[in-house]
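Feature request disguised as a bug: please show the residue count (491) next to ATPase component of uncharacterized ABC-type transporter in the output. Example input:
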Amino acid sequence: MLRLEGITKRFGPVLACDGVSLEVGRGEVLALLGENGAGKTTLVSLLYGLYAPDAGRILLEGREVRIPSPQAAQRLGIALVPQHPELLEAHTVAENLALGLRLPPFFTQEALLRRLQGHLERSALGLDPGFLRLPVAALSAGEKQRLEILKALLSHPKVLILDEPTSVLTPREAEGLFGEIRRLKEEGLAVIFISHKLDEVLEVADRIAVLRAGRKVGEVSRKEATKEELIRLMVGRRLSPLPRALPPKEEVVLEVEGLHVPRRGVPLQGVSFALRAGEILGVAGVAGSGQSELVEALAGLRPYGGEVRLLGKPLPRDPARVFALGVGHVPEERSTGLAPGLPVAENLSLRTHRRLARRGVLFRKDLEARAKGLMDRFRIQAPSPWAPVRFLSGGNAQKVILARELSEGPRLLLAMHPTYGVDVGAQEEVHRLLLDLAASGTAILLVSEDLDEILALSHRVAALHRGRFVGPIPREEATLERLGRMMAEGR
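Example output, currently without the count:
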């Protein structure tokens, strides 16, 4: 169906893709693996008309094609589900889905709603037809991602590119997506599936290609593939097991009593817990259960009722003052934690620019020196400290947020999906970093939809179910099954 031959792409001195050749047939799923910055996103951008290759050719159904724009890609039957949803937030779900349909002139809104309701009812993605009239801004990150997938499928593409489609989906939502992929395979759709989650790749892919530093370094069938071999191809080494977390200290860093946060649907209510120095409290939940509201309220970004104390004193309700007291915040969505038009160096200094200034002036060499140190420490791959963040891969952009929030050694870290979009090697680095922070006395509230991550790192685990806090329970008493019941049933 789709074939790439010797694709090469440069960005100045950076060779993003170096003679890459791939193919995917009808009814086949080709998984594309690689570290952050390996060239996966560049390859996807070339296929979707965002960039033009410097060398090589693209063949669709045996015919060489040029793809000068996303519109041209769509006309050729190539659909992309991007890593970050690109939806019109002020418009309704129905209006966003209409962009994926070919509608006749003067198509009424009621007719559109009837047509879309049928699509939602037949889809395995679990989107409620009642969402159609809601503005996209009211949806959770997971709901937006499922909406983006459904919008792409409405155009009945020949080739579907899924770029990290499960990054913010719960295991149940991901299973719904995999069921949809299997159905589409039977209908002859060619799928390119990009993910850092090796278990998912081994479940859904027919073949797996691995990129490293812009070159294809291996390709194996699913039957022949193992996690260990895929990791070795991706990062060039074997990963060692994580150390056990050290016991927490007695000092209470964060106290939450009767927290109530207004939100769409069921409010977040009656949340009470304490978090000690050196403790990691993992919180799981189905998308939309109140995780975002909990973290944003504690970060000073949302109004709330109840009592919150940091080191025995009331927590300010202002994000700048909260950070000044030693609270770091990794937000749910990268877009809210970065200024994409600013360079890496300035994004890394957003929290500390006042302290870095001399007589009110920021000096370029000071910003550059600090940025280079953090880029080395957190292994951020960028052409230079002055490259705009929007040009970085998703995983490297996530590392910019982590570097900025963790560089000052916070007393409390509010971490929501801290490994969102990062490769398996970088996940290991982030996990070790969190364990090291906890060992130094930082209290960590870890909110994640990756249950393995929560169970691997946490001292205690809890869940959110329809706005209610369930738990916490000691990690030793937690299993995937028990945590799943806490998420799904609230008990």
